Amino acid sequence: MKVSDILRIKGGTLFTVSPDELLINALKLMDDRDIGSLVVMEQGELVGMLTVRELTKVLVKTGGSISSTVVRTAMDDSPLTCTTETDMDEVRRMMLERHARYMPVMNKKVLMGVISFHDVARAVVDSQNFENKMLKAYIHDWPEGQEPADAPKL
Is the pLDDT at 142 greater than 70, yes or no? Predict the structure, then answer.
């Protein structure tokens, strides 16, 4: 399974923010849209990622006073990225290694979408459910009285 499979199911809605936007406005957008991340774009290019993790760090550092803080001061300026062709096993490995919950999907310099750890987990579960269904159907249709040639004799 590839990242393109997740994006096809998830849809293409993207939420971005400028690095010079006030952090409070970004936080409001995240709240309004019930999302955990925003891609930070400047002049059409990815320059960072703003997630709940970065927001929490800034809130703690400033004692909750972020009225004049801009996104640039809080964002992760070197976010983990993947392509639409990245295999899901590789995405899981990358996300686990970096403790990343969100990953922008890029096609060269073009933002194609964002996948979350939740999206990855859902894809894995759906894939396993499909495989289990196929295996159960195969077993159900097994001719009675026959065993596979390599089945151990008990």
Answer: no
